[in-house]
Amino acid sequence: MADGTTFKIDGRDVVAKPGQTILQAAMDQDIYIPYLCYYPKMKPQGSCRACMVEVEANGRKMMVASCTTPPMPEAEVTTNSEEVEGLRRNVVELLMSEHPHGCLTCHRIELCGPQDICQRHVTVTDRCTICPKNERCELKDTVRAVELDLRTPLNYHRRDLPIHSDDPFYDRDYNLCIVCSRCVRVCDEVRFDTALTLTSRSGVALVGTSHGTSLLESGCEFCGACVDVCPTGSLTERNYKWEKAVSEVATVCTNCPVGCQMIAEVNKFGKVVRFKADLAGAANNGQACMTGKFGYEYTNDSSRLKRPYVREGGILRKATWDEALEKIKSGLGGRSSEELAVITSPRGSNEDQYVAAKFAKSVLKTANIDSALNADNALLSRLEARLGAGAATNPIWDLENSKSLLVVAGNPTEEQNVLAVPAKKAVREGAKLVVIDSRETELTRYATEWLRPKPGSEALLIAGISRVILDEALEDKEFVGSRLDQAEELKQSLWTFDLAKVSRDTGIEDAQIRRAARIFAESDAGAILLGDDGLTDKAAELVVDASIDLAAITGNLGKASGGIFPLYRGANTLGARDMGATPGENGRDIAEMMSGMTSGDVKAALVMADGVSGYSPTLSSLPAALENLDFLVVSAALDSEITHHANVVLPAATYAEQNSSLTNVERRVQLLRITAEPKHEEKTGWETVAAIANAMGGTGFDYATASDVFTEIAQEVSNYSGLNYERLQSGGIQWPVDSSILFSDEASKVTVVALNYDELANSAESGSLTFAPGRVLSQPERDVVVRKPADMNYVDREQFVQVHPDDAKSAGLNEGDVIQVKTDDGHILARGKAVFDSPQVGLVGATTLFGELATKMHELDVADWTPQMPGLGYSTVTLESAPVEQEAGAAAD
Amino acid sequence: MTTAETEQSSKLREQIRQVLNAQAQPTITVLSSLIAVQDSIHYLPDEAIKETATFCGSTINEVWSVASFYTNFRFTEPGDKTLDVCWGPSCHLVGAQQVLDSVHAALEIKEEGESPDGKVTLKYNTCLGACAQGPVIAINHHLIGKQTPESAAKIARELRGQSS
Ligand code: SF4
Ligand code: SF4
Ligand code: SF4
Ligand code: FES
Ligand code: FES
User: Fold this and answer.
1) Whole-structure pTM value
2) Any stretches that span the bilayer, and where are they (chain A) (predicted)?
3) Pocket of ligand 3, candidates A221, A284, A411, A655: which has the most ligand atoms within 8 Å of its Cβ, to mutate?
4) Structural domain containing residue B103
5) Nearest-neighbour CA in chain A from B47: distance (Å)
6) Structurally, what CATH architecture does the domain formed by A766-881 represent?
7) pLDDT class of B1 with cuts at 50, 70, 90
8) Residue B59 falls within a domain, yes or no?
9) Which fold, A377-566?
10) C-alpha closest to that of A712 among A725, A731, A728
């Protein structure tokens, strides 16, 4: 069985891989057997019977569902006998009795095609033309494959259900549902959200939510997985709902470092009308998230910048590229290197980053270059310094087999969504999850142990865990003995981490630290997901040190399903580092550039602004800082608060208008592919910078294609050597070439570092109040009312603010008071009823529902909304009682 | 949410939590929890679904899938009294349909369910087991036989507190 089973399908020899069913083996061989409830990468369910085949084995014949039946050796499978076809036809006929099928089964189909207007055969309301998925649904393929051709159409029972079009992003029309339950199962067994369910029973069974409530309340994360798998017009994306695609292009999502491979559907006008997750994607395994699935459409926006603009007499006027370049030449030229800055786009390709870095170095001669979302620089630099890569040591989907997971100061279900999918899978299958975070996030709800320390004491807590492991002799002795450098120094330093002290300084009970330590040390493979939310640069570095030490003493480096995964932002932040688009010696990083602009030290800048927004938590001071510049060039796809102060605005091509490469968090170099040529004068990032460089007299910028740039990258950047576009075509390759897990070489050594108690303890904040906002998908223990003032649903529920009794006392507040949480500059972050259940003095919390965020994003009136997704940022705050006229539960702004 | 809504809902939740926690049998499931709640408050309000989800570590949708599977669970508050009208074969032969029509009219409803004032829940029964007494009705499971459209309507009106 190990080598698979040899059998025959319709006389053809077929070998099924171990564990495969007949249907799966057939699909691998491109033999088509109709199927409806089955879907690739989901467990077979065997409920629709559309996949019936005849199997003859050991002299016996039987009819089986091919999606659930493994092949027997030497079996003969028949998919096309009259009997099989008849049976299948009957099955599909029954399914059709509740789905409009006049057009699907009409004998004139070849003549008119259901996309046409029919004069007589089918009642208007039953025609496929009124379905948004007309001519692109899967059901029609199945029906045609089984050759359902009914002279007398079956009676069709219309359910007459209202269409749900009041939730964000996608519509549900259960009149078209064939109850295959793919949506229910993908949400449950792939996404682990269970936001949908089978309802009722027998003849009236359907899919839906509890009490038919809104998705806002049901725990939906708007990942669109259910929409992608639905074989009918029942679940459809609302945008471009009725649009048909003429081509499909495999590309990559540019919203976060997971780098999900996506299929872009393009219509006949070259518009991207849909994004769906690519089942073949190595990084995402067929999954995506709200921003990836629904945030693609800015490329089609009619307000796209079409040509260059130059500022004259205070206003931006249309210009030619030559005029613009002339302006830039004089604006950026003749300045000292300290006055200049280059900010690259978090979505910018490797080619963009490389050419920008080369330009900064060789033409502007400045070390001030950084990628806009490189606010996680401390985290990544420290990882790079210690492990040789500011990236994940293991592939993302390795996580599905991890036996324990430690998540620190990160919110991957929102910020690096698909990375959390295999992590959630591991937990569903029994892995233990330890979360160290002061905020309540989706993952804290899955956690075996949720450690909610004093903000800033995360590193200390991790070191405390390591100490317990040594105390209880739970370390991986073999790994420690053979693979660690400076193990002794680490051990010695850990003896100073007295658990009682750690417990006092982190605010976590020592029993819980012990439990967490045992969970992590006693599992076969433990992975660490490392964020830096709320951490200072110094604290982030210490968290990295403590985590690497922990991973090392438990033998989780160089091991499948172990490793360290940094949770940073920006789709190509890693590529930017690889290409050298990070501060050079004495150069300014993004934060220092902003302060330099404000102080007047930085006077001129080039900003590649695709995906850069002043609404990103780490870039909130950027628009104001840019205002101070003498000269600003912005390359952007859309007008925004970044372009407003520019002297020259250059039109940028989007992800959809270029061939280029990006590198994701697991070091996978993947290709973006062009879906349509730029329609006007837009240029890609590298073309733009190369044009500026040439205008300014730079040499070595004469690239004809992105592939030429990449050839140079492969020569210059050692980790990329051996790579080229040809090799990247089939799904991307991890650098260094062919090393999917770092440190898997038995001879390689991991250097651990001694930890200093006082240093770790001092990085904890003290004295001030910290607001740690939380967000979860669902909280059934709390009341939610879904209101629908017009045609959209809104979540309405009482707000609670978690405070520590001591903090309330010092602020003169009582439990149950309606209070508000205010920042120094007077911004109200939350308002609600005070409850005394904050675990730490100094920690204030409030948890909102993801549904509220989804509605907000859906309603944002900007084309490129994904950079504006508010993260769960920490703030220093004060508490006060809310003005009396505010009703409890009024939404915070 | 208004303050009144919140208060009412949290009272109901408290009551449901007590029922859930009072389950004494060794195996506690979503189903046993739902039955316990329905036994106690006679229906499954939205709060029951949510509290059961929290209690069983499940999700509201999973609980709903179980609850909506069984026809015996009800999701709206029952009337103060139940009125069963038998429409089994024996009663049918002696005029159950006319009895039912007049009860519908008296309760101002067209099918099973609660009268608009919430006082009476009407249920159809396929045989109340007293065929010889047909047409049979039952008030709170107490059988009354030999009904006429007029007598049944009178009883229905009286149950609503209306003078006949
Ligand atoms: S979009 Fe919502 S309902 Fe659909 S699979 Fe994702 S979480 Fe589940
Ligand atoms: S909504 Fe679509 S995927 Fe879900 S059960 Fe119905 S047909 Fe299947
Ligand atoms: S997880 Fe990241 S890469 Fe994947 S779809 Fe979401 S934003 Fe895009
Ligand atoms: S695909 Fe096999 S039973 Fe549905
Ligand atoms: S049929 Fe009415 S009591 Fe039996």
Assistant:
1) 0.92
2) none
3) A284
4) 81-159
5) 8
6) Beta Barrel (2.40)
7) low
8) yes
9) Dimethylsulfoxide Reductase; domain 2 (3.40.228)
10) A725
